[in-house]
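Progress against Task 2.4 (sequence-to-structure conversion) is shown through the following example record, which the project officer requested during the mid-term review.
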Amino acid sequence: MFDCPRRHGERIVLKRLRIAVLLYLLLFVGATQYFMGRHATDWDAPLWVDVYLVAGDAHPATRHYLDGVSREEFADVEEFLASEGKRYGLALTQPFKLRVVGEHRDGLPQLAADAGFLGVAAWSLRMRWLASRLQWASAGPSGDITAFAVFHQPAEGVPLDRSTALHKGLIVVANLFADRGATGTNEVVLAHELLHALRASDKYSPATNTPLYPDGYANPEARPLLPQTKAELMAGRIPLDEDRSGMPSDLRDVVIGPATAREIGWPIRR
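Structure tokens generated for the chain above:
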């Protein structure tokens, strides 16, 4: 049985209305997040980071791990960024304040490995819409940065998907291990992605993961140059010799280099 022309017309109007409302909401979200991102690196007040826990798999051990996470799970990240800010002469004693605000159980928008420009743009919009909905639903003041800590069970020989961050919307997706033995490396990953959200760039070769000289070296003036003793945060690895680099065990083995500090608006002492 065919719809009458009147019903067909009503459906078209409703469809157009839904599209108009969605476009308006996306425009509103985009404008709000644009101004948030523009002033994020003024450093006239701490940046609050709302961390949402996410189960990256259905393993019972992952569930057990998430149940044991406290609000202060990432206090060492906060302290590391405060210490590095002080080293650069930042006036703020605590440039970042991290708090675990709860668990997000509905999953995250997925980005296909072969996603083109339009696919990435659509994923970005879905992530920004999700972050905005969580902020609006928050009982208290929402944070400046929304971070999703996605925990997975370690599997030998199986690397985690690469973590990512969006400057537009100030959103972080950090893929982490649900293992207390990986706490230190989890903190390095989260700190790395937080600075990505503030427009810090990677300082390693995408093809080899090798830190790039000089910006990817913690101490590019060292003589001898190799081995280095620490990793530059946005390089993520400690250069050992011409062919090898090692993972830092925790944030005590990491520094923020001058190039990264400049990118996020920290003062550079001459």
